[in-house]
Amino acid sequence: MEGGVPEADMSAFRECLSLSWKNPYVLRLAFSAGIGGLLFGYDTGVISGALLYIEDDFKSVDRKTWLQEAIVSTAIAGAIIGAAVGGWINDRFGRKVSIIVADTLFLIGSVIMAAANGPAVLLVGRVFVGLGVGMASMASPLYISEASPTRVRGALVSLNSFLITGGQFISYLINLAFTRAPGTWRWMLGVAALPALIQIVLMLSLPESPRWLYRKGKEDQAKLILKKIYEVEDYDNEIQQLKESVEMELKDTEKISMMQLIKTTSVRRGLYAGVGLAFFQQFVGINTVMYYSPSIVQLAGFASNRTALLLSLITAGLNAFGSILSIYFIDKTGRKKLVLISLTGVVLSLALLTVTFRETEIHSPMVSPFESKQFSNNTCPEFNTAALNNEKWNCMRCIQSTNKPTCGFCADHNKVQPGACIIKNDYSKKQCGNENRSWYTKGCPSNFGWIALVGLGLYIIFFSPGMGTVPWVVNSEIYPLRYRGVCGGIASTTVWVSNLVVSQSFLSLTEVIGPSWTFMIFGVIAIVAILFVIVFVPETKGVPIEQIEDMLEKRFVQIKFWKKRDSDSQKH
């Protein structure tokens, strides 16, 4: 203990586990609110697998890359609105109400998607789901943060991140389970209604956030809840700190404006860190991996939908494992150091992916005129037109043909040997399959595919414990209580706007410049993120929420992050 601030160490993780018998009430609050994270993760993961089968049912989706991106990104557009409105609902009506509204929207969206008879109805369902996900993305960690003892706050908010990754892992299991069921993708998308309904029931039986109640003048209710959360020896100190924080905020009762946020030093500096982390979390490419993981696996040379889903399950499992590591390390290592280690690993992983996909493009199997002509009148028209130069055609050139009709590659039995370039349609796919040959339309056979999988795995392992968790933890604790809902909404909106830009452009980028250059762009952004974190993100490990404001006022930039804060910056 230094300057009255509890020093977080490895015991925080053990203390978090001990809550199961010492204070199960806290864990009940955290797990119930964390189902919002589970829904968030489930939607992120399930659409990646469902999209493969939606393309089979709706041919317009298969033909149009922008429509595939729209099915993913309309949910994100809804999340932007949900996050923005969610900040106001959080402050006006409370964290509990926000979570229940988010679940209701998610429930409605899941039913609409499962019953969709065309891409247009499916997009409407995606918007509803997005609204719910956007609201839950900030309400759940905020509720957990405000209902957690200081010492284990980081670990319990990390629990929300674990449930996000757990939701992604479950979504891949669900995807695999329904690959051979009638209505495949309808079951995949409709199952999400169940956890949303469960959380509505659970949240109705739980109290509102004690800090929000205190802020609204309902002190007696807040004290009753805080008595259940804190040990007897910590209770009086927590009440006193909360009282001082609220009294300070109530001195200024004018409506919060953007100018006021900018002029308030602690809020402005908090926004630099929180919004910046939210921005870089998305622009280093994580949701391209989560939304399009099976497609990336196919780009690496694995043709089968089922195989792509099975291999994607590995990345989802690693993501869940990484979030478990974050629960242990976030209050031991510290937010800043953990995110810097994370980003360094992300840069190295993206470099490996860049080199691997470049090698895959260069050493793509050639197209054999003889093999292509074996498929009667189904040879790719553009290949025939380029008769004088078709000896230079390889698989990548074949699947990237832009003239109508587009083409696919039927690989030789020895996949890296020359194969056939034929028209991309169901008949060609069936012909190729009848000869026990693999059919490629997104990526090409390669000896380097396994290296790409290793690169994806390393990327997830490095990203998840740091950049996957730290931005949510920092944004749930870095802002003064009065501004927390609004600032959290700004940061959450930043996440979703960034997410929208990345997810709406990823498939198009891979078509225009190729996967290798796309991953290189993410790598450069990750290097910029490292410099940003070193300069602008403060360490909040072990600092009570009420004291973080004072820390930001006194000292913001701390480049020597490995050193402890000066003790005088922690004393009051």
Description:
- By secondary structure, the protein is mainly alpha-helical.
- The chain is built from 26 helices and three strands.
- The chain has a three-stranded antiparallel sheet with strand order 2-1-3.
- It is elongated and about 85 Å long.
What attributes characterize this protein structure?
elongated; 26 helices; 572 residues; mainly alpha
Secondary structure layout plus pairing:
Elements: H1 11-22, H2 24-57, H3 59-63, H4 65-93, H5 95-114, H6 119-146, H7 153-177, H8 184-190, H9 193-204, H10 210-215, H11 219-229, H12 232-250, H13 258-263, H14 265-283, H15 286-299, H16 305-329, H17 335-362, H18 369-373, H19 381-385, H20 395-399, E1 407-410, E2 420-423, H21 426-434, E3 439-440, H22 449-463, H23 470-477, H24 481-512, H25 515-536, H26 545-554
Antiparallel strand pairs: 1-2, 1-3
Helix pairs in contact: 1-2, 2-6, 2-7, 2-8, 2-9, 2-15, 4-5, 4-6, 4-24, 5-6, 5-8, 5-9, 6-7, 6-23, 6-24, 7-16, 7-23, 14-23, 14-24, 14-25, 14-26, 15-16, 15-24, 16-22, 17-22, 17-25, 24-25
